[in-house]
Design a protein that fits this description.
Layout (H helix, E strand, L loop, with lengths): L26 E6 L6 E6 L2 E7 L3 H15 L7 H7 L3 E2 L3 H11 L5 H12 E2 L3 E2 L1 H7 L8 H8 L4 H8 L3 H10 L4 H26 L1
Antiparallel strand pairs: 1-2, 1-6, 2-3, 4-5
Helix pairs in contact: 3-4
């Protein structure tokens, strides 16, 4: 009998989807009962993205959203902060957790104990709507011209950088800081105009 190998949750192993506009895909993190390990299954739009060994739910949820933001040209900034602001999920009775936190105050290493109690018993939400997913990774915020162009024309950052003749690290930095120089903006606008002209010419040729 073949033993199923469950990978450890890392930025390299976790699978994330390419988000599509108009698709209402609910995201779910499901803890799998296993006395030997802490295993979490990630489900998006009713399709499993795999099961992973994790240290805690918070760890795998944060890893997932950070990778999702990067893969979908979102923003890595404030991902953790946005998750912290959401209503927490209590994995056991809240009163029991509050009691344990109060008891931890009596120990010299109270900060470490309280952190362990929180990590083991309180997590970020386990379910997310499509709007919540987009908000957490910065896709509902007004996108700058770089991210908008990447999305609309299905380009990688390196492809756009090559097309407009700019260093890819410079372009990535401008996009992440939302600090687009006038030269970069104009270069992208010209690139887009060129694409549109090519498309119009192609349409004209097909009609002739």
């Amino acid at each position: 009998m073949k033993v199923k190998v469950i990978p450890t949750a890392t930025s390299g192993t976790i699978r994330v989807p390419k988000l599509k506009k108009g698709v209402d895909g609910k995201l779910l993190f499901k803890k799998i009962h296993n006395p030997m390990a802490f295993i979490v299954e990630i489900i998006y739009s009713e399709k499993s993205l795999g099961q992973y060994n994790a240290r805690s739910l918070n760890q795998i949820i944060l890893l997932f959203f950070e990778k999702l933001a990067k893969f979908n040209h979102g923003s890595l900034e404030n991902v953790e902060e946005k998750l912290e602001k959401l209503e927490k999920t209590y994995l056991v009775d809240k009163n029991f957790i509050d009691e344990q936190l109060a008891k931890a105050e009596n120990f010299p290493n109270k900060d470490t104990l309280k952190n362990e109690i929180i990590q083991n018993n309180i997590s970020y939400p386990l379910e997310y709507s499509n709007d919540e997913v987009n908000d957490i990774i910065g896709l509902t915020e007004k996108q700058n011209i770089i991210r908008r162009t990447l999305d609309e024309y299905n380009l990688l950052m390196k492809d756009l950088a090559s097309a407009i003749g700019i260093n890819v690290n410079t372009l990535r930095s401008q996009a992440s800081k939302n600090d687009i120089t006038s030269q970069t903006k104009r270069s992208i606008e010209l690139y887009i105009e060129n694409i549109k002209l090519k498309n119009e010419l192609e349409m004209y040729k097909n009609k002739v």
